[in-house]
UniProtKB/TrEMBL annotation:
<comment type="similarity">
    <text>Belongs to the KduI family.</text>
</comment>
<dbReference type="GO" id="GO:0016853">
    <property type="term" value="F:isomerase activity"/>
</dbReference>
<keyword id="KW-0862">Zinc</keyword>
<dbReference type="InterPro" id="IPR027449">
    <property type="entry name" value="KduI_N"/>
</dbReference>
<feature type="binding site">
    <location>
        <position position="204"/>
    </location>
    <ligand>
        <name>Zn(2+)</name>
    </ligand>
</feature>
<keyword id="KW-0413">Isomerase</keyword>
<keyword id="KW-0479">Metal-binding</keyword>
<protein>
    <recommendedName>
        <fullName>4-deoxy-L-threo-5-hexosulose-uronate ketol-isomerase</fullName>
        <ecNumber>5.3.1.17</ecNumber>
    </recommendedName>
</protein>
<dbReference type="Pfam" id="PF04962">
    <property type="entry name" value="KduI"/>
</dbReference>
<dbReference type="InterPro" id="IPR011051">
    <property type="entry name" value="RmlC_Cupin_sf"/>
</dbReference>
<feature type="binding site">
    <location>
        <position position="246"/>
    </location>
    <ligand>
        <name>Zn(2+)</name>
    </ligand>
</feature>
<comment type="function">
    <text>Catalyzes the isomerization of 5-dehydro-4-deoxy-D-glucuronate to 3-deoxy-D-glycero-2,5-hexodiulosonate.</text>
</comment>
<feature type="binding site">
    <location>
        <position position="197"/>
    </location>
    <ligand>
        <name>Zn(2+)</name>
    </ligand>
</feature>
<dbReference type="InterPro" id="IPR021120">
    <property type="entry name" value="KduI/IolB_isomerase"/>
</dbReference>
<dbReference type="InterPro" id="IPR007045">
    <property type="entry name" value="KduI"/>
</dbReference>
<dbReference type="InterPro" id="IPR014710">
    <property type="entry name" value="RmlC-like_jellyroll"/>
</dbReference>
<comment type="pathway">
    <text>Glycan metabolism; pectin degradation; 2-dehydro-3-deoxy-D-gluconate from pectin: step 4/5.</text>
</comment>
């Protein structure tokens, strides 16, 4: 488990491109037949990429989180960004198609992830995990792709028409503190969140997916008056501290998993900044 320590906004102006990428970008999460995890000290979030290609993979405990089982004192949302697969939680199998989300609550012991027979188009399953500490237990719950609470946002005139699927949230699948969903842009739309915002009470992470191999997303981060950017490829994640804006524009349409943990679960608890005030 790789560790990333928390950063402050006054560190950003002096960072090089490599410094920024080393602090906030999480590349190469998905490696065949491996489980890769990153622990960020921003709200104690763990990000994971699980790629069961030739055989199922069992999620272990880690000394960094001081637990014998991963879910001993944690919860997680898991979204499949690859081909169809299954997640078996304490003997109960859940089938996840591309874009589906499984919430796994505190106290789960045996969690096994597997791919169904991959197709040439979809390939094997690729499971993206977002986890935070939990102080109470809620039941493991599956949400099929495109379900949950659906919100249509944006406008084609501003190139940000998008469908937002809220999966784990205060009025949907219950959790202790994880909030999670998937946003998909319409063809011809490239911007995700603009005007940008912060929420100084929650860390948010994005995983960009369904992006063509040669396409990239320019992800904006930093304080609104001191922004920087990262160039991000398919199935790469970015850690956005509570003080940072998080917005992006792609060279092609794409989807992204957004997930948060922190002080509250109110999706609309955010502080917006008009484009004209950003620097």
């Amino acid at each position: 488990m790789e560790q990333r320590y928390a950063t402050a906004p006054d560190q950003v102006p002096g960072m090089t491109t490599e410094d920024l990428r080393g602090r906030y970008l999480v590349p190469e999460l998905f490696v065949d037949d491996e489980i890769r995890t990153v622990y960020t000290h921003h709200d104690r979030v763990v990000l994971g990429g699980i790629s069961p290609v030739s055989a199922p993979l069992t999620l272990p405990g880690y000394p960094e989180i001081r637990s014998e089982q991963f879910f001993e004192h944690r919860e997680a949302g898991i979204v499949n960004v690859g081909g169809t697969g299954t997640i078996t939680v304490d003997g109960t199998e859940h089938r996840l198609e591309h874009g589906a989300c499984l919430y796994v609550g505190r106290g789960a012991v045996d969690v096994v992830l597997a791919s169904e027979e991959p197709t040439a188009e979809a390939g094997p399953a690729r499971f993206y995990l977002f986890s935070a500490p939990a102080h109470t237990a809620y039941p493991t719950t599956l949400v099929p792709p495109g379900q949950g609470t659906v919100r249509e946002l944006g406008d084609p005139l501003t190139s940000n028409r998008r469908t937002l699927n809220q999966y784990i949230h205060e009025n949907g699948v219950r959790s202790c503190q994880v909030v999670m969903g998937v946003t998909t842009l319409y063809p011809g739309s490239m911007w995700n969140t603009m005007p940008a915002h912060t929420h100084d009470r929650r860390t948010e992470c994005y995983l960009y997916f369904d992006l063509p191999a040669e396409a990239r997303v320019i992800h904006i981060l930093g304080e609104p008056t001191e922004t920087r950017h990262l160039v991000i490829g398919n199935r790469e994640a970015v850690i956005s501290p509570s003080w940072s804006v998080h917005s992006g524009v792609g060279t092609a349409s794409y989807s992204f998993v957004w997930a948060m943990a922190g002080e509250n679960q109110a999706f609309d608890d955010m502080d917006g900044f008009s484009v004209s005030t950003m620097r």
